[in-house]
């Protein structure tokens, strides 16, 4: 048995380790340090700058909850933008919605896309080559501030707010997303694990609240992001979207005929129920 371990040092005072059963890649892209290894429980594990980004075994939870929740809450999502998400898992899930005409992936690091095509086929499938996929290699903040496109759904699939991901948690970034969101559109964000990163969630949601009529978060526990449930930011000018009823969600889900392993309409609704300490963080 291997005695080689990957140690995540994201949180001061609390590190977590995954055994490296097979080391597949280690190197530096233009923007960050990239590592890929196999763990017998999680399958292939992608890390950027020492932080677990996605694993073959549990990526479905994260990617399904950041796609199907906004896409099914919205009555008619045609134009979708994913910021970050260079592993392709998010666009792969978005493309399952036939109603979506185009998904624009704005990734700062072309190296992550090339790498994922080569090593993470089980996560991205053929999504990068889909005719509805539009890949833009750019800083997400700059793209959101300057694009003439308007999006029905914006999904922020970022790293944590350290290094290249930091700008994607700023007031300026949320303002830019608000600008390029179509009327009735919704933005969702990766907002960290509230038990471990409470201040980050509080800051993001309060920044969103200043710009959008409705802002808050919903939750899902993703095992490889240690520390309990992860929070996903929710921001829209249409306050009715978060209250989309179960029967409406069910009929949209049925007609989309998408197979999921985590998402169900009931899970969608329940994900907005917040434990008291998280409710207190988001006001
Ligand atoms: N990006 C989100 C990783 C966040 C990990 N953070 C944490 N454990 N607090 C995932 C990219 C997958 N497409």
Structure description:
- This protein has about 280 residues and is an alpha/beta fold.
- The chain has two domains: about 5-55, Spermidine synthase, tetramerisation domain (Spermidine Synthase, Chain: A, domain 2, Roll); about 60-280, Rossmann fold.
- About 30% of the residues lie in helices and about 30% in strands.
- The protein has helices at about 60-75, 90-95, 110-120, 120-125, 140-145, 170-180, 200-210, 245-255, 265-270, 275-280; strands spanning about 5-10, 15-20, 20-30, 35-40, 45-50, 50-55, 80-85, 100-105, 135, 150-155, 180-190, 215-220, 230-235.
- It has a seven-stranded mixed beta sheet with strand order 9-8-7-10-11-13-12, sandwiched between helices.
- A hairpin with a 3-residue loop joins strand 4 and strand 5 (about 45-50).
- Helix 5 (about 140-145) crosses helix 6 (about 170-180).
- 1-{4-[(3-aminopropyl)amino]butyl}guanidine (AG3) binds next to strand 6 and helix 2.
């Amino acid at each position: 048995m291997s005695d080689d371990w990957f140690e995540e040092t994201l949180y001061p005072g609390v590190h977590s380790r995954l055994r490296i059963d097979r080391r597949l890649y280690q190197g530096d892209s233009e923007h960050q340090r990239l590592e890929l290894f196999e763990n017998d429980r999680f399958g292939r594990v992608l890390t950027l700058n020492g932080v677990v980004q996605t694993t073959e075994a549990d990526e479905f939870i994260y990617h399904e909850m950041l796609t199907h929740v906004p896409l099914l809450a919205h009555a008619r999502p045609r134009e979708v933008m994913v910021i970050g998400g260079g592993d392709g898992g998010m666009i792969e899930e978005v493309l399952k919605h036939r109603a979506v005409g185009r998904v624009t992936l704005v990734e700062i690091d072309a190296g992550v896309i090339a790498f994922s095509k080569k090593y993470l086929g089980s996560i991205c499938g053929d999504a990068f080559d889909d005719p509805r996929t539009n890949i833009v290699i750019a800083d997400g903040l700059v793209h959101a501030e300057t694009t003439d496109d308007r999006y029905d759904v914006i999904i922020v699939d970022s790293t944590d707010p350290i290094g290249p991901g930091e700008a994607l948690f700023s007031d300026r970034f949320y303002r830019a997303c608000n600008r390029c969101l179509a009327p009735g559109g919704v933005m969702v964000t990766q907002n960290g694990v509230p038990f471990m990163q409470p201040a980050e969630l509080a800051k993001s949601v309060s920044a969103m609240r200043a710009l959008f009529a409705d802002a808050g978060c919903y939750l899902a526990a993703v095992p490889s992001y240690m520390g309990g449930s992860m929070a996903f930011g929710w921001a829209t000018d249409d306050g009715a979207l978060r209250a989309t009823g179960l029967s409406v969600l069910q009929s949209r889900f049925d007609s989309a005929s998408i197979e999921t392993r985590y998402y169900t309409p009931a899970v969608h609704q329940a994900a907005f129920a917040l434990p008291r300490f998280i409710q207190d963080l988001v006001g």
